[in-house]
Structure prediction request, 825 residues.
Amino acid sequence: SFQPTHPLALAPVTSPPHSVDGFVREFLRELNTDAGVTLSRSTVNDQYLSLARTVRHYLSARWLENTRKVRETKAKMVGYLSAEFLLGRQLGNALLATDLEEIAEKALAECGIDIATLRAQEVEPGLGNGGLGRLAACFIDSLATMGVPCIGYGIRYEYGIFRQTFVDGRQVEQPDTWLSLGSPWEFPHPEHAVQVDFGGHTETYTDGDGVERTRWVPAWNVLGMPYNYMVPGYQNGQVNTLRLWSAQATKAFDLPTFNSGDYADAVRAQTFAENITKVLYPEDSTPQGKELRLQQQYFFVACSIRDFLDRFILDGDVTTLPERVIFQLNDTHPVIAVPELMRVLVDIEKLDWDAAWAITKQCFAYTCHTLLPEALEVWPTELLGRLLPRHLEIIYRINDEFLAEVRAAYPDDELRARQMSIIAEYPERSVRMAYLATVAGSKVNGVAELHSQLLRDKVLHDFSEYWPEKFTNVTNGVTPRRFMRLANPGLSGLITETLGTGWLTDLERLAELEPYAEDADFRDAFVKIKEANKTRLYRLLQARDGVALPGHHLLDVMVKRLHEYKRQSLKLLHIVSIYEQIITGKVALDQITPRTFVFGAKAAPGYRIAKETIYLINSVAKVVNSDPLVKDVLKVVFPANYNVTLAETLIPAADLSEQISLAGKEASGTGNMKFALNGALTIGTDDGANVEIRKLVGDEHFFLFGLAEPEVAELQAKGYHPHEYYESDPQLKATLDLIASGHFSGGDRSVFEPLVSNLLYDDRFMALADFKDYAEAQARVDAAYADQETWARSAVLNVARSGFFSSDRSMRDYIDRIWHTQPLR
Ligand code: RUG
Prediction:
């Protein structure tokens, strides 16, 4: 390695001074020398980029020091492998982590700049779909805050989750060009590019020691280009790394072809390679899309494993790997890492199979995030074998050895062996990635108590019987730095005034707020903050979407991905039901609790029913919002493009949090935690982490409704007939009839017929079965909201009793139960 001689180069790297003058100097230097403009000629974007780079300077010294320490002390690291990291905006978090908020604001004000304008300039990196990706972002924030060495590995998608627009009420996807105005938070390292192979065939050969070996003869390859991001801990001087990979062609440009005039062909290899990291989770309903997705998965884990070995196993002794890393598999997307590590250890490092398998089993742990069978990935062996022939061979051998163990443990139970096989034979021969992860992983965890129990009892039942000690639960959590301190400065300020500092990194301390639920002054202050948060939201929605909202309504919010199991349609039935009762005179206006309903949801581009549901929500909103009869009591708004940035303004304003999935379908949910921590009350089913929220906040501060999971299973078994609910419940009938009548589609009865029929004759997620109970629970919400004092008391108690849902606690659980890593001293 390079040995510097200059004394300055030998001294530790230092941060710029923590002062307004120091900050101004750094900022202007960035503007002048990096952006190459003077302040007076600079654009808002120049200023934003320079501000971001300035803040980066304050993190760099600690980052370099951290990395050095991890290498030197050979500390065991968490390698968090995730196809998604839904980071949200970086500037606010970096200013908070470095304790530079005030200094930066003053410094910019002295330059004549309002920092709020620059904050608004940042485009969030949308490198995730929803809960799973946001969870990964919360986890790396917590690990940095706890000083636990971690490297996050993922994909630098050129286009993240699509930007949702509505055209005549229908979702239209636009590309998310998050990189187009510059990306000041990343550090590209082309010199550390890694080659990743695909295709071809395998062959056997005998090595110099007479050992028979296999080698992979790939057909093509691409380069993985790393981009580093700093992951700062909260005001603790710790900075971890997130390393995202971008695909590039090995030979990007063919000059002779270009010179011959075939310009398109000259860059064909480049276009082909770059497609791998072009978009987040491309449509997988076509065979091409599926193949691309497998390419993405292999691409990023192959880069990451190579990178970890090169970077941290400096003496080349790969047998020490389990002492240096635990790779956490965030869902099945990175599971191809298992055969990849085996390939590296056996084919390249020349370990014998058993030694390699012993190492591999210690290096992985697997988190499952779902119970829906369709979300458990399987790869046809035809595809996997064509793209990764050596990996398929390795998977077959892992499976053979595993099934031999199973057969030995359960002689005469061939059915069990078949059920547990990593290879499924029907409807086509394929690899069950969740089973592979379970066989290889040292631990398998679900993400909430109920989910982990259902994993053990149902989805992975045979495995949990065979390896009971392998299974554990870690309930999800969210980072209070972003979702309280940054998103809700008002409430955070009140908590700090009341409890002093320290609660942001020790969230169980929120319990100390409990007595203040009885303190009228505290409740008053709390309510005023909620009102101010609503005003802030309404201003934003006015500016962003042109909607004007009344300040005094109960704010009822349902924000999450659009999926049938989450049951946005049930929420909609409730809204239409109230509306129907008003317009038919069944209830008087003065009996209605004025409510504003907010939806935020993206539907997967190829998910037809989900997109139709969006259209129905927008159509109902249009009719309800323009009906003078209900104008004082009902509003329905659906701001387009719900993302982390919007969540940060929406959640702190909400009164009511809608968590209404069919019991047994939502693995955990994390939005539910964010709402409770910001003082919204939950209306919810006994599903996912709702169960734990309800237990902690108490039944009287939570509106429970709906079938419990065993009841769902029972109803399913005996045969569910949704139209029977329609026929026996006049209000449900009237509600569905109103939708079917064309009332929300300009009289055209055909528009929503497929949605209505789907509910009446299929209704996979039992919205009709839960409708009545849901409407009754909503009536309890109205009654509770009528007593503002009691409501405020409940809201305060929701905050006080939700400290458990910090992602710091989740990380402690992972460390104790799975990783066994230590914080850096
Ligand atoms: O749907 C789940 C949520 O319930 C959960 O809170 C979140 C984080 O654990 O993960 C979501 N998820 C599940 N995202 N993708 C999947 C299926 O692979």
In short: The longest strand covers residues 220-232. The longest helix spans residues 44-73.
